[in-house]
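Course exercise 7: structure representation. Students receive a sequence record and must write out the corresponding structure in token form. The form below is the worked example handed out in class, using Zgc:153935 (303 residues). Read each field label carefully; the graders check that inputs and outputs are placed in the correct fields and that the protein name is recorded exactly as given.

STUDENT ID: A-19
EXERCISE PROTEIN: Zgc:153935
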Amino acid sequence: MPRGHKQHCEFAQFDISAILNFLSACKHFKPFLTKGENVKKVINVRNVVMHSPDLKMNNEDMNRHLETIFQFADMLNSKVSALSVLREKIEQFNNILDKNFNQTEVDGQHKDLKTMVDFQEVLNREQQALKDRIEYLITHFEGNLDKNENSPDMTTLMEFLHQNKDLLENLGPEVYKLKGMQTKLNQHEKQINNLTNRVDQLEKVKETTNTAGQSSSQITNYPKFIKDNRSWLINTVKNIDQILDDLSELHSESVANVKAKQTKQAMMRELLLYVNCERIAKDLFNALLKHEKRPMEERLKGL
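STUDENT ANSWER:
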């Protein structure tokens, strides 16, 4: 059996979902299930009930789902005689529910409950349903964190339990597991968000780099670029010393004259006087891309 049932070896260890899926998938049962769609309908009923967002159901849906279950039981009556009393048992339990939820309380006691046994039966069924739902949520998320987000079902269930302190107390071990899984989901979601933000940042850097690279690759006439952007270069470029180090074709005397100037603007103005050939213009252009990366990226975008 898949997921949380791998370690289960006895019939009593399986919940109703596992048993229904087993009936639906195993070839052994096909001769008994004359209408295979009935099994799927009952499985759907189970899923609707277990995944109800507010743990509620109106009377019309309840009656319709019960009729689906009764039809399934009638189909198996010849093989499982105990199912013949299913309708009667469910109707008895519904009567208990009606009394439990419709009668007023007097001094903390339900006035018209037939016996405390009936009342305990309601509590036992309620707790078992919640245990099944908690186990489903845990097995659904455990080992599949990458495929899931923090489930609204889990949040809704925790809110319901906090509003019903008796259930919260009686389902202590299950609630502890559920809280542990919720913590794991929160941590995983935080890690995913961090990774997503990091990827977004890298994508932006990559996009900017590609844009600059594409723009710079479109420049082929380097002397023209230097000439057309002379004023911008004089007012913008700051890392002139680093740029001079990359201009290997520039005479040492010219370099000295540039460094002798007192301001960045004066240094750049002097440097541009020596850009008198294609090779030096290209070296200066590449040095600007290297040492004045961001201003050059912005400049090239506007071209």
